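Human: Not sure, check this?
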Amino acid sequence: MTDFEIQRGLRQMNTPRMPQADLWPGIAARIAAADAAPVSAPARRRRWLPFAAAAGVLLAIAGAFTAYTLEQQRAADAFIAGTASPLPVRVSPRDAHDLSRAPGGDPRLLGAAVVLDAAHAELEQALDQRPDAVFLVSLLNRTNARRMKLEHFGARAG
């Protein structure tokens, strides 16, 4: 079939036509059957149900995370305040009388202060021997950062 024949067939289809059978009796019967049937409420779709379930799961996860965070903060505050059992600290007898070295004057932090001071002194000695060692400078900076954190804990505890 050529394009010309297809176009001619399409033009012939565009003419008005009469149906082979009368369609109105079938349409009227369907309308009458629909009118006689009892009217029921349309089924309500529950599209919100998956969203409500997802929101519930999200709220449960957020609540659990909040409770966990609050419990961790309470435990940290209790440890800092001294209500939790402190870790044993070994302090040499010559450092035991010098509580002024303890951050915030808290004797529980004295052991950590002694260790940080010793580490600082050792790092300075090593840096004097090898002034070109960049990693020693970074370790010294980390030790100073730990000392600052310890001072912060001492200020909060005292």
Q: What stands out?
A: Residues 89 and 111 are 5 Å apart (CA to CA). Residues 83-89 have pLDDT under 50 and may be disordered. The longest helix spans residues 49-81.
